[in-house]
Structure formats: C-alpha cells, structure tokens
Amino acid sequence: MVRQRVALALHILGTFLKFFAFAYAVPLVAALHYHYRAGDPAEAYWWIYLLLLTATLAIGLVLENLFRTTREMERADGFIIVALTWLVIPVFGTLPYLLPPISLGLLNGFFEGMSGFTTTGATVLETVEALPRSALLWRSLTQWLGGMGVIALFVAILPRLGVGGSQLFDREFPDPLPEKLRPRFRTTARILWTIYAGFTAVQIALLHLLARLPLFDSICISLSTMPTGGFTPTSASIGAYSNPVAEYIIMAFMFLAGTRFILHYQVLQKQWRALKSEEFRLYIMILAAAIVLLLLAQGLGSYRESAFQAISIMTTTGFATADFDQWHSGARMVLLALMFIGACGGSTGGGIKVMRALTLIKQTGAMMRKAVSPNAVVSLKLNRKPIPEAIVRDIISFLFLYVLVAVLASIALSFTGLDLETAISAVAANLGNVGPGLGGVGPALDYAWLPGAARVILILCMWLGRLEMFAVFMLFSPRVWRG
C-alpha cells in the first residue's frame, strides 16, 4: 500500500511540475523585454528562466511517466499529495533565488520561496529594489499562484484528475464549512479562479489608470493583493508611494480578498441575501472595532494609516504604509490579535478564520445554556442552517493544534535568542501567513538576521499555516500511508 501511495503521489507531482514549468515563462518574457528592449544589464541572466523551465518540464515528464498508475485516488492520498506538493512547488519556486544574479543561499532562498507560495510575505531581502524586475515579478507571481492554490488551478485545467480532484481541492483550499458552487469540483475551481483573476485585472487597471502608479508596480502589487500576500517591488512596501488613491484602492481589494469567494460569486449572481451572512457581518464588525481602537490609540489624524493596517493585518496581506511597530502598545496588541483571527473562511487569507471564531462563539453560548438547563435541546445554527457536530469537533481540533503549534514554535524561537515580543509575533505572522510582525521582525525590518534555526521553524509555520495543520500532520501518520 505504501509503495502504491508513493507511486501515485509522484505521478501526480510529475503532472503538476510539467504544467508548473510554464510559470517560468512569465519572468523569462519580462527579462527578455527589459534586457533587449530597455537595455537593462541586470536582466542578462534571462537564460536562467529558460533553463529552469526546461529542467522542471523534463523532471515533471519523467516522474509522470515513470510512476504512471491507474490506481484511484483515496482520501489519504489527497492529504499526502497536497502536503508534498506544497513542499515541492516552493522548492522549484526557490531556484531563481539560488542562481545569479540573486544568489541568496539555500536557506534564505527557500524561506523566500515558501513565503511567496504560502502568501506569507515575510522576506529576507534587505533591499528589494536591488533585484532585477523579472525577479520582482516572479516574487509576486508565486504569491498569486499560491493564493487561490496551485492545485486548485490544476484541478480547474486538468480533466484527467476526475473525482480525485475533489480530494485535492478540499485539502488545499480548506474551509471550516465546505461549500461548492457546482456539483463538480473542477467547475467550482474554474469559477473561483475566474473571479480571482478578474479582480486582479481590475485592480491593475485602477492602480495604473486612476492612481497613476507605474504599470510594472501596479502588476506586482495586484498579484500580491488578491492572494493576500504582501510582496511589493519596494523595501518600504506601499508606504514608498505616498499615494492616498492607491492606498484606498488596495484597501478595497484587500477587503475583497479577505471575504469568502463564494460570497463574491453569489453577489455577482445578484443574490443580495448573501451579504447578510453572519460571518461577513462579524468580519466587518471586527474590522470596524479594530479601526476604532487604533484611532483611540494613535489619534484621529491617523485614520488612513489605521484603516489600512487593520485591513492589511486582518486579511493577512501584510502591506504597510507605516512602521506600526513604533505605534502605541495598545495599537500593537490590536494588530497582534488580528494576526491570529485572520480573514473569512473560503478566502485567500490566513489565520484562524472568522468562521471558526463565530462557530466557537455560538458553541460557547450553547454550552452556557446547557449548563443552566441541562435537559434543553440546543442546536447550533449558522445563517439559519444547522451546523453539524462533526464540523464543530473539527474546528475545536484545529484550534487546539493551532494554539499548540503557536506556543511550541514561540518557545523554540525564544531558545534561539529572540526576545518574547519578536518570537510570539513572528510565529503569529508566519503561522497566519501575515508577513511582518513586531519587534525584531517589524514592517521596517526583515527576517535575514534571524538565526538559521529560527528561519527553519518559521518555514514550517508557513507550511502548516497555509494547509491549516491537518494535511501536514497527516503526512507523518503511519496509518495514512498504510491505509
């Protein structure tokens, strides 16, 4: 059984790599353009992208054909394939950072690659502007591919995955309350990716035409906004532009990215009742409360910065217009809380998710009522629909794992020499796929100075946070491999 599972996993990974190879065509075209049309000597290494495209395609074809199998995909296979894919794809996405002219080194390169695909946005780059524009585009592209999910993209375009595609889609795009737009997962994946790409295109147009940002910057920022990623072509993030119009546009799209994408579809279908969703209302209430608290701490004059940072941190995008690590301690605590809460379920945001928080609030209320009236029959409902007990148990288990990993990782970081504030916020920022934290990893700083062991721990946090724990832990369960 183990051999069969490995063979199927390697076969599917080969198929994924075969198609992923063509992602290198984007920075390749950019490098050729800037080298031969714009005369940029920094793009002289354009051939590296061609080499990586060819090598990745060859490896994918070898794995796909060498381990060809007719075995049907089971639930256990879904956990294994998704967890391995989210290790392998970032490894291949790391390769441009290891070769000239960037040459970050293995650990820093993998940190940057994992941060990109998991849409964390934490960086080891001290001067982002020093990178060639093709590499800057690649950084943002990795976040865009990782936001809605590379596997969801493959499910959308590969009919041969068949029923097995649902096993992969569920594991990669975990949702506390799983919903499908269509009976076929392939159709659902296509709809979600279409909405995702559409929002990205609209944001590019608005930033370039309305906010007057350079086209290249508009593309890079938009590719990082919808996946709630946080990479920008500048070291000072969005604050480098000092452009209020751009900030308001980015705020709007961060808010959309942090909202359940199925709600977007329903609104586009003129199903206005979807806006009455309890999760969506709580999402707005938490954001509004956070902005008010930030204004109380920072003063009314900080309304734009406060609103921007509240939306950026809660949606786990991680853009910055100010060095919020220098803010009032109360404001920093609000932002730290938002890192843990995160965005809505079924969005591209990370964190615990608003849906889980809402379900636990309802469960707590039900337990209090049961304590007063032990014989009362109390059923949990969300949007007037019962919540199955199995989902409540899953949410409680997830929260336990999330808190456990956060505590253990913070302790481990403290043993590498980090102070308490830096350790806790670094874990919150990377486990929640936020990016910048507080203290030594604030928005004005980077992660390059951290000890190697600390960077390894945070890479694991990114991986665990993006797949929401279970798929990764299943990978280390002998029972899953044996069936």
Describe the structure concisely for a colleague.
The protein has 21 helices and two strands.
Features:
483 residues; single chain; mainly alpha; 2 strands; 21 helices
Q: How many strands, what sense, and barrel or not for the largest sheet?
A: 2 strands, antiparallel
Q: How does the overall form come out from the CA principal axes?
A: globular
**Number of discrete helical segments:** 21
Residue runs with pLDDT of under 50 for 5 or more positions: none
- Provide the residue-averaged pLDDT: 92
What gap, in angstroms, lies between the N and C termini?
7 Å
Q: State Rg.
A: 22 Å
Report strand order across the widest sheet.
1-2
Helix/strand order? HHHHHHHHHHHHHHHHEEHHHHH
The helix content is 55-70%
- How much of the sequence is in beta strands? under 5%
Describe the protein in words.
With 483 residues, the chain is mainly alpha-helical. It is built from 21 helices and 2 strands. It has helices spanning 2-20, 25-37, 47-66, 75-98, 106-117, 133-148, 150-157, 164-172, 185-210, 215-225, 244-257, 261-268, 278-298, 303-314, 329-341, 354-372, 389-415, 420-431, 452-466, 470-475, 478-482, and strands spanning 381-382, 385-386. A two-stranded antiparallel sheet has the order 1-2. Helix 5 (106-117) packs parallel to helix 19 and helix 9 runs antiparallel to helix 10. The longest helix is centred in the C-terminal third of the chain and has 27 residues, at 389-415. The radius of gyration is 22 Å and the shape is globular.
Q: Secondary-structure map with pairings?
A:
Layout: H1 2-20, H2 25-37, H3 47-66, H4 75-98, H5 106-117, H6 133-148, H7 150-157, H8 164-172, H9 185-210, H10 215-225, H11 244-257, H12 261-268, H13 278-298, H14 303-314, H15 329-341, H16 354-372, E1 381-382, E2 385-386, H17 389-415, H18 420-431, H19 452-466, H20 470-475, H21 478-482
Antiparallel strand pairs: 1-2
